């Protein structure tokens, strides 16, 4: 990663922030962005305090295709090349299909799926031109395991997985010099649940408390190391955290049977 130009969206918090710190420690030059400019400034401060990495930071909303296109051009102007893009920005949302409005579901798809599509399409020509490109899309273990009340997030993250795996094969088939990695984190200690939305009438704080106390087991810094190790090993698929491995195995063994167990667990944890 030494000297490589690394682009990270959603770098103002959680996994994105720790990816920025870890990439800087490994010698990368950074293009960081987020909608949250205060969080982004804090990431830039942390990176500056522990490395001499070159860092450019910009406010960027990944749902805005024209803004992402303009941003990709700006990054090329600043650095001349891009080697690694991590489409990390994402949001969570809780609500059953019946409870969620169309707008709620569309918002999750806009950020979690279309944000990834924008970042992928706008940077892909530059990754190919670099001669040694790598694209990382952050999906979730919830692409593999569906959970009641996470239907929009499950759908968006499954879409990211399939989009990313298809692209990887296109790069292989076309002989393009771009590796592609899909990342499936399990529960990671970040602000994701505390920042999440919830359908009308639901209390998002309740779900955040359940997530933070019962499911967020892996530190974001560990997640960042696992992800960048996977990048360095050119892995197609990276699972993050022991829970991700257990869930992946459970769904393979019991592709429909897992659902009854998940409903029972959701009842026990007060999710449904
Ligand atoms: N934390 C987990 O347990 C977990 C598990 C699986 C997958 N993920 C995924 O990891 C990624 C990072 O999440 P995190 O856990 O670090 O959460 P986080 O909330 O700590 O960080 C997400 C960042 O994305 C930014 N963001 C949100 N909407 C944006 C937009 N429209 N444009 C640009 N930036 C935007 C937020 O401002 C925030 O800084 C997300 O894609 C999330 O879905 C997280």
UniProtKB/TrEMBL annotation:
PANTHER family: DEHYDROGENASE/REDUCTASE SDR FAMILY MEMBER 7B, DEHYDROGENASE_REDUCTASE SDR FAMILY MEMBER 7B. This is Acetoin dehydrogenase. One of its GO terms (molecular function) is oxidoreductase activity. GO terms for cellular component: membrane. It comes from the Bacteria. Keywords: Oxidoreductase. Belongs to the short-chain dehydrogenases/reductases (SDR) family. It holds the Pfam family adh_short. Residues 4-191 form the Ketoreductase domain.
